[in-house]
Amino acid sequence: MATTAEQATITAPPRRVFRHRLATRLWHWINVIALFTLLMSGLMIFNAHPRLYWGQYGANLETPWLEIGSTETAGYLKIGHRRWDTTGLLGRWQDGQGNIQRRAFPGWITIPSTYNLAMGRRWHLSFAWLFAFGLLLFMARSLWNGHFRRDLVFRRGEITPRAVWQDIKDHLRLKFHPGGEDAARFNILQKASYAGVLFGLLPLMILTGLTMSPGMNAAWPWLLDLFGGRQSARSIHFIAAALLVGFIQVHVLLVLLSGPVNGIRSMITGWFVLPREKGQ
Amino acid sequence: MSPILTRRRLIGSAALGAGGLLAGCDRLGENEGFRKILFAADEMNRHAQRLLTDRDALAREFPAENLSPVFRSNGTQYPAGPDYQAHAAAGFATWRLAVDGLVQRPVAFSLAEIRSMPRRTQITRHDCVEGWSAIGQWTGVPLRRILDHVGLRDGARYLVFHCADDSGGGVTYYESIDLIDAFHPQTILAWALNNAALPIRNGAPLRLRVERHLGYKHAKYVRRIEAVASLSGIGAGKGGFWEDRAGYEWYAGI
């Protein structure tokens, strides 16, 4: 049953709200480039020593907690004592020319696509600048223009168990847009995940990355104490990167499910078209 | 056009785009202009670290319980060539370390002379560019002692380490550092590892320890140190064996 207000929105031209400011949009797309480059060149660097350790040191004679390796016939991923056969994907795979390669991550997901640690580092350590300073400038701008305060701060009514449960149910039902102006505002799950990525994962990537630098270790020895050693920092760097990949997957999936054209357009032009409300 | 088609099209073009981008990245990485931009980060990292950090900041020194049970060796394990092998067989009794180039008094030190000089012992972490780390205890002469002995001439800006190991294609290994690292208190020419004579696989009889850098800077089998004004005349001009051959960063503090 449609109310009169809803009927009005059906007949009226679609209403638009200005949702994303220039700093947000610029940073978003710069980050798309920076993060993909960092992730893929990072996998190349991982391929040089596809083993992760905890603690201050760790090399071939120590026991890794995670390892991607290969036998004569199979590729495998090993975490702790568990081992999975990953032939074709990790450890042992075919390259574009049909040759068997025995590297951890396959060429289609690394930069460069053929094994080259020096170039992987060049990509990684130059785009790290774009990523780190992009984040810094975006944070400064968002504090200044009130983006964080207005859009990310949790409101009193949003964090009651009832409201959070309601939001989870809405997500599971793929019902993303409440009526009217609220459609353009972030819901509590959105706020929590954006805040977690912005203030948690992204700074963690930078700090664990710096902890792997022997020069920065000398300059800021507290980094080693914070993460429990260079090899621990390397492990956390990898885990945080995996969590970021998970965030990106969910983020893209939800954009596709909630109206990709409107969502992507609003991240380009800033303008978000309020959805017409459907009658029950 | 139905929304389903739009969506499918979007996903399809995204996949195509991703494949194209990846091929594009490989091509970009070979493009001269783009490489310049990528490679500029080396200088940025060096300047940023030197600006942000105390030039004499010490690398962490660890307690003995953090020592790696076995200190992994990398690169050359046993230098080929009859000259080195004759020295090894003789316990390096007649090995000489030549220090020359832009110095006031070129000297060829014997190992006995180097071992009798003031020594420094440090338990530090060795970080390979590949990603692994090993912790070892090094004993050797601070490089600044050697430099005080020979006296650098005006204009000397880098030290080049010429090594005894052929690292491929008949080219012996070489590396270089600037004077900030050369005079750093933890920069030593090590002759012992974990309280024993430096093993051949770790660079006997002398190897450089330059603790705020990745492993490839720590030249093994050092037989000559040359003070130079510029790196342009060394190898292909990038300052080191791997820098010249594979494009690794000269500044390996990151």
Assign an overall shape of chain B. globular
Task: Count the domains of chain A.
Answer: 1
Per DSSP E runs of 2 or more residues, the count of β-strands of chain B stands at 10
Number of helices of chain B: 7
Looking at this protein, list some descriptive labels.
heterodimer, A: 280 residues, alpha+beta, Fumarate Reductase Cytochrome B subunit, 4-stranded antiparallel sheet, two-stranded antiparallel sheet, B: 254 residues, Sulfite Oxidase, Chain A, domain 2, 2 domains, 5-stranded mixed sheet, 5-stranded antiparallel sheet, 10 strands, 32% helix, 24% strand, disordered N terminus
Describe the structure.
The complex is a heterodimer of chains A (280) and B (254). Chain A has a single domain (13-58, 116-271), classed as Fumarate Reductase Cytochrome B subunit. Helix content of chain A is 55%, strand content 9%. Chain A contains 10 helices and 8 strands. Chain A has helices at residues 4-11, 22-48, 117-144, 147-152, 161-172, 188-211, 214-219, 222-227, 230-257, 260-269; strands spanning 16-18, 51-52, 66-70, 75-79, 82-85, 93-94, 100-101, 271-273. In chain A, the strands form 3 sheets. Chain A has a 4-stranded antiparallel β-sheet. In chain A, strands 1-8 form a two-stranded antiparallel sheet. In chain A, strands 6-7 form a two-stranded antiparallel ribbon. The longest helix of chain A has 28 residues, at 117-144. Chain A starts with a helix and ends in a 7-residue tail after the last strand. The relative contact order of chain A is 0.15. Chain B has 2 domains: 3-49; 59-246, Sulfite Oxidase, Chain A, domain 2. In chain B, a hairpin with a 2-residue loop joins β7 (188-193) and β8 (196-197). In chain B, 42% of the residues are buried. Chain B is built from 7 helices and 10 strands. Chain B is of the alpha+beta class. Chains A and B meet through α2, α3, α7 and α9 of A and α1, α2 and β4 of B.
